[in-house]
Amino acid sequence: MRRRALLARTALLTTPLTALAGCSAFGGDGTDTPTDAPSESATDEPTASPSPSPSPTPSPTATPAAARAPGDALTVAEHTLVRSNEGSDSELVGIDVVVENTSDAAVTNVDVLAEFRDDEGTLLGQAEADTARIGAGGRWSVELLFPGSGADARAVADYQVVVRRSD
Questions:
Q1: Which of 111, 117, 96, 100 is nearest to 34 (CA)?
Q2: Distance, CA of 111 to CA of 129 (rounded, Å)
Q3: Res 167: pLDDT
């Protein structure tokens, strides 16, 4: 399964940003879920490897409390920063996100936006995904891939996930 995710990320990396991110305009109701990715100084051992890793490795960050989107029952139930090929020119970074509909009714036109930032808070890139419907009590798992690789991907130190309805 992780091999497919890595191949999908690599394929997405070669597509134009507009196909990857979709419409990147902000608007509508949304919930921001800021998180801090761990810095290398937070560990006792170096984590970068000069050779590519065979599969993506999740970051050791704890998942903060779920965030709710105002006006509906959408919750960011899980989110994890994932890196693959760490330390190489083909290093990739993405976020695995699970959005949950905690209501008794289906929710339509759901967008998830990820903003990738460096350790100074500078916006490095965005990725977006959408779904037409999440059923009552349903969950939607999505991978949002940073639009760069190598040194650009290594610069990602923080991210923010925004869930919104586009209707």
A1: 117
A2: 6
A3: 67
Helix (H, G, I), strand (E, B) or coil at 64: coil
Q: Does residue 45 have a pLDDT over 90? A: no
- In this structure, whether the domain defined by 2-15+28-45+52-165 belongs to CATH 3.20.20.190 is answered with no
In 3D, which of 102, 98, 92, 103 has the Cα closest to residue 149?
92
- Cα gap 58→139, rounded to integer Å: 20
The full 3-state SS of 11-56, as one line of letters, equals HHHCCCHHHHHCCCCCCCCEEEEEEECCCHHHCCCCCCCCCCCCCC
Residue 89's pLDDT is what? 95
| Digit-coded pLDDT (tens) for 63-83 | 333 444 445 589 999 999 999
Residue 9 gets which letter from DSSP? H
Contacts of 61 (CB under 8 A, 6+ apart): 35, 36, 37, 38, 80, 81
- Secondary structure letter of residue 121 according to DSSP: -
